[in-house]
Design brief:
Helices cover 61% and strands 10% of the residues. The chain has 7 helices and 4 strands. Strand 1 and strand 2 form a beta hairpin. The longest helix is centred in the last third of the chain and has 21 residues. The protein starts with a helix and ends with a helix.
Length: 153
Protein backbone atom coordinates (compact mmCIF):
# COMPACT_ATOMS: atom_id res chain seq x y z
CA UNK A 1 0.00 0.00 0.00
CA UNK A 2 2.82 2.42 0.89
CA UNK A 3 4.67 1.66 -2.34
CA UNK A 4 1.47 2.38 -4.30
CA UNK A 5 1.08 5.72 -2.51
CA UNK A 6 4.70 6.66 -3.25
CA UNK A 7 4.27 5.57 -6.89
CA UNK A 8 1.06 7.61 -7.23
CA UNK A 9 2.67 10.63 -5.56
CA UNK A 10 5.74 10.43 -7.79
CA UNK A 11 3.51 10.28 -10.90
CA UNK A 12 1.54 13.30 -9.70
CA UNK A 13 4.73 15.24 -8.97
CA UNK A 14 6.28 14.34 -12.31
CA UNK A 15 3.10 15.43 -14.10
CA UNK A 16 3.13 18.75 -12.23
CA UNK A 17 6.81 19.23 -13.08
CA UNK A 18 6.58 17.93 -16.65
CA UNK A 19 3.67 20.18 -17.52
CA UNK A 20 5.82 23.12 -16.35
CA UNK A 21 3.26 24.38 -13.85
CA UNK A 22 6.02 25.27 -11.40
CA UNK A 23 8.10 26.88 -14.15
CA UNK A 24 5.28 29.08 -15.40
CA UNK A 25 3.80 30.18 -12.07
CA UNK A 26 6.18 32.34 -10.03
CA UNK A 27 3.86 32.52 -7.01
CA UNK A 28 3.42 28.73 -6.91
CA UNK A 29 7.21 28.29 -7.20
CA UNK A 30 7.88 30.34 -4.06
CA UNK A 31 4.95 28.88 -2.10
CA UNK A 32 6.15 25.33 -2.85
CA UNK A 33 9.77 26.22 -2.10
CA UNK A 34 8.96 27.50 1.40
CA UNK A 35 6.33 24.88 2.31
CA UNK A 36 6.72 21.54 0.52
CA UNK A 37 10.42 22.13 -0.27
CA UNK A 38 11.43 23.96 2.91
CA UNK A 39 13.97 21.38 4.10
CA UNK A 40 16.41 21.94 1.21
CA UNK A 41 15.85 25.70 1.47
CA UNK A 42 16.81 25.72 5.16
CA UNK A 43 20.06 23.90 4.31
CA UNK A 44 20.63 26.30 1.39
CA UNK A 45 20.03 29.33 3.59
CA UNK A 46 22.54 28.02 6.16
CA UNK A 47 25.18 27.44 3.44
CA UNK A 48 24.52 30.91 2.00
CA UNK A 49 24.94 32.56 5.42
CA UNK A 50 28.21 30.67 5.94
CA UNK A 51 29.53 31.88 2.56
CA UNK A 52 28.57 35.55 2.96
CA UNK A 53 32.14 36.50 3.90
CA UNK A 54 33.47 34.85 0.71
CA UNK A 55 31.03 35.95 -1.98
CA UNK A 56 28.01 38.15 -2.56
CA UNK A 57 24.58 36.65 -3.32
CA UNK A 58 23.03 37.56 -6.67
CA UNK A 59 19.60 37.01 -8.17
CA UNK A 60 19.62 34.37 -10.89
CA UNK A 61 16.22 33.65 -12.41
CA UNK A 62 14.01 32.84 -9.43
CA UNK A 63 16.94 31.74 -7.28
CA UNK A 64 19.73 33.21 -5.21
CA UNK A 65 23.13 32.44 -6.72
CA UNK A 66 26.55 32.57 -5.09
CA UNK A 67 29.53 32.21 -7.41
CA UNK A 68 32.35 30.06 -6.05
CA UNK A 69 35.88 29.51 -7.46
CA UNK A 70 35.14 25.90 -8.48
CA UNK A 71 34.25 24.19 -11.78
CA UNK A 72 31.07 22.54 -10.46
CA UNK A 73 27.87 23.60 -8.74
CA UNK A 74 25.05 22.47 -6.52
CA UNK A 75 21.70 23.74 -5.40
CA UNK A 76 19.77 23.45 -2.19
CA UNK A 77 16.22 24.58 -2.75
CA UNK A 78 16.30 27.98 -4.38
CA UNK A 79 19.95 28.59 -3.45
CA UNK A 80 22.58 27.89 -6.12
CA UNK A 81 26.30 27.65 -5.38
CA UNK A 82 29.24 27.14 -7.73
CA UNK A 83 30.43 28.07 -11.20
CA UNK A 84 28.26 30.19 -13.49
CA UNK A 85 28.36 27.69 -16.38
CA UNK A 86 26.24 25.18 -14.45
CA UNK A 87 23.84 27.68 -12.82
CA UNK A 88 21.09 27.11 -15.41
CA UNK A 89 21.16 23.36 -14.77
CA UNK A 90 21.14 23.95 -11.00
CA UNK A 91 18.19 26.30 -11.46
CA UNK A 92 16.42 23.27 -12.94
CA UNK A 93 17.12 21.40 -9.70
CA UNK A 94 15.32 24.22 -7.85
CA UNK A 95 12.19 23.40 -9.85
CA UNK A 96 12.64 19.77 -8.86
CA UNK A 97 12.80 20.81 -5.20
CA UNK A 98 9.52 22.69 -5.58
CA UNK A 99 7.89 19.67 -7.24
CA UNK A 100 9.36 16.83 -5.17
CA UNK A 101 9.62 18.64 -1.83
CA UNK A 102 10.99 16.54 1.02
CA UNK A 103 11.77 13.69 -1.41
CA UNK A 104 14.17 15.92 -3.35
CA UNK A 105 17.10 15.43 -0.96
CA UNK A 106 17.00 11.62 -1.00
CA UNK A 107 15.62 10.91 -4.48
CA UNK A 108 17.49 13.57 -6.47
CA UNK A 109 20.15 15.52 -4.53
CA UNK A 110 22.00 12.65 -2.83
CA UNK A 111 22.13 10.40 -5.92
CA UNK A 112 23.20 13.42 -7.98
CA UNK A 113 26.10 14.23 -5.64
CA UNK A 114 27.24 10.60 -5.47
CA UNK A 115 27.01 10.20 -9.23
CA UNK A 116 28.87 13.45 -9.92
CA UNK A 117 31.81 12.62 -7.64
CA UNK A 118 31.97 9.04 -8.88
CA UNK A 119 32.31 10.41 -12.41
CA UNK A 120 35.01 12.85 -11.22
CA UNK A 121 36.99 9.93 -9.74
CA UNK A 122 36.71 8.09 -13.07
CA UNK A 123 38.01 11.17 -14.91
CA UNK A 124 40.99 11.43 -12.57
CA UNK A 125 41.77 7.74 -13.22
CA UNK A 126 41.68 8.53 -16.98
CA UNK A 127 38.58 6.38 -17.40
CA UNK A 128 35.55 7.87 -19.10
CA UNK A 129 32.00 7.22 -17.90
CA UNK A 130 29.96 5.09 -20.29
CA UNK A 131 27.05 7.56 -20.35
CA UNK A 132 26.49 11.27 -20.75
CA UNK A 133 25.87 13.37 -17.64
CA UNK A 134 22.20 13.85 -18.51
CA UNK A 135 21.64 10.13 -19.20
CA UNK A 136 19.94 9.67 -15.83
CA UNK A 137 16.39 11.02 -15.44
CA UNK A 138 16.93 13.57 -12.66
CA UNK A 139 19.87 15.29 -14.39
CA UNK A 140 18.08 15.36 -17.75
CA UNK A 141 14.99 16.76 -16.03
CA UNK A 142 17.04 19.49 -14.30
CA UNK A 143 18.76 20.52 -17.54
CA UNK A 144 15.47 20.55 -19.44
CA UNK A 145 13.70 22.58 -16.73
CA UNK A 146 16.50 25.13 -16.47
CA UNK A 147 16.62 25.52 -20.25
CA UNK A 148 12.84 25.83 -20.46
CA UNK A 149 12.75 28.56 -17.82
CA UNK A 150 15.49 30.65 -19.40
CA UNK A 151 13.95 30.29 -22.87
CA UNK A 152 10.77 31.87 -21.43
CA UNK A 153 12.58 34.61 -19.47
Amino acid sequence: MISFAIYFLSDFLWLMHHKAIVIRNKFLFYILQWTWGILANIFGLIVMLCLLTKTKPQKYGRCIYMQLPVNWGFSLGMFIFGHKWCAEHEHGHSFQNAAYGPYFLTVIALPSVIRYWFREILYKMKKWPATEYDAIWFEAQATKSGNKYFERA
